[in-house]
Design brief:
Elements (H helix, E strand, L loop, with lengths): L18 E2 H10 L4 H9 L4 E2 L2 H10 L6
Antiparallel strand pairs: 1-2
Helix pairs in contact: 1-2
Amino acid sequence: MSFDPDEAQGYLEGVDYPASKETLISTAQDNGAPDELIELIAGVPLGEFSGPEELMNHLRAVPNRDN
């Protein structure tokens, strides 16, 4: 995957935490996020995130990323 997870927050504006994975995916899609970000979020094992820092830590740790 070529998507940089550090760019994710721009696609997640308006999310109120704690937030479910489904909420994050829906918001990202509504904000025009690339498929790579949707796949990254879907690949995170947690179902709910306490805040953006927790989400970003998990996105950076998703295996099988090219970068």
